[in-house]
Specification:
The chain is α/β, with parallel strands linked by helices and 188 residues long. Helix content is 44%, strand content 21%. It has a single domain, classed as 3-Layer(aba) Sandwich (Rossmann fold), CATH 3.40.50.300. It is built from 7 helices and 9 strands. Strands 2-7-1-8-9 form a 5-stranded parallel sheet, sandwiched between helices. A 4-stranded mixed sheet has the order 4-3-6-5. Helix 5 packs antiparallel against helix 6.
Length: 188
């Protein structure tokens, strides 16, 4: 049974917004709260959006092989704990993960029979640039770094089980729900 939903996207494509909307609409979905060494944004809550930890604590988890995947993204570390995924598999609960492309590839490799990967793309790179600028949380340099990574991330899109274009948030949410329903029925 597939029950690990891995969602990836270029930064600013709407991945986190879509995941939050899906979590509100599907309250029975479990949410994998990643660990990160980056600072919390003003709208983020520790333990709910991420577990914000020090680099030394992150390194300890990594050396203990606690992570199913971890990655350095823009100079900060992000990781997913194995125990959460293995508990979801054991209890046959659907768990939703917000990951970068490398994280999704690692999860697919570790749990090939249980994972479904969704890649979210913006309508265009110009749209992506505007979204990042509208966040108000990014410097010009960080936007440039994220846009540079966009081309690298887009090279992975064909390795995902499904592609979801986010040009209209309501349409994207409905399409996301259709994908989940197909997965539950075993059609994916």
């Amino acid at each position: 049974m597939k029950n690990i939903i891995c969602v990836s996207a270029p930064s600013g494509a709407g991945k986190t917004t879509l995941c939050k909307a899906i979590r509100k609409k599907c309250s029975d979905l479990l949410w994998s709260v990643s660990y990160t060494t980056r600072q919390a944004r003003s709208n983020e809550i520790n333990g709910e959006d991420y577990h914000f930890i020090s680099k030394s604590k992150f390194d300890l988890h990594a050396s203990n092989n606690d992570f199913a995947e971890f990655e350095n993204v823009h100079g900060e570390y992000y990781g997913t704990m194995k125990i959460n995924l293995e508990s979801s598999i054991e209890n046959q609960k659907i768990i939703l993960l917000d990951l970068d492309v490398n994280g999704t590839m690692a999860i697919k490799k570790l749990y090939p029979n249980h994972s479904l990967s969704i890649f979210i793309v913006p309508p265009s790179i110009d749209d992506l640039r505007q979204r990042l600028m509208n966040r108000g949380t990014e410097t010009r340099m960080s936007i440039d770094i994220r846009l540079e990574r966009f081309n690298e991330e887009m090279k992975y899109k064909d390795r995902f089980d499904t592609l979801l274009i986010n040009d209209n948030i309501e349409v994207a949410i409905n399409n996301f729900l259709l994908i989940i329903n197909k997965m539950i029925k075993g059609d994916i």
